[in-house]
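Data card: per-record layout.
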Amino acid sequence: MEPASANQIVHGDQEEIAPPKILPKSDAKATAKTAKVTLVLDPLSITVVSSEGKKQTKLIVAVGAMKFAAMVNSKSYRKAFVTLAELGADNCAVILQAVMTVMGNLNGNILLSPLKWFFLPLKTLTRQAMPFKKMC
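The structure for this 136-residue chain is written out next.
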């Protein structure tokens, strides 16, 4: 039989996990596996560059004083302009969803969502008609 671990209290046949140690007042700490970033882009600010034959297109995004270099899927980049032309810049939201591996460097996709979806009751949304249209 092995001894109980240090954070457990054993009472007969029952094992209970002891409450975690409470540290003195300070900032709480944690680690994360990845940093996921969602940026809402201004549709009229996105510039058109040739992305034919490329797997990824570099998109520089400025948010106030911060700048991000986002590598986006070229197919989603091209489809974003097609969808923007169909819906109009005032009728959709352009969203960049990415993973930040290094501070300021993003890797992800562009998604578009018609704004009318945001005003529908939750019951009317089905699996076939979800609000975000993935562009890849």
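Known properties of this structure: The chain has one domain: 28-134. The chain has one helix and eight strands.

See the next section for split statistics.
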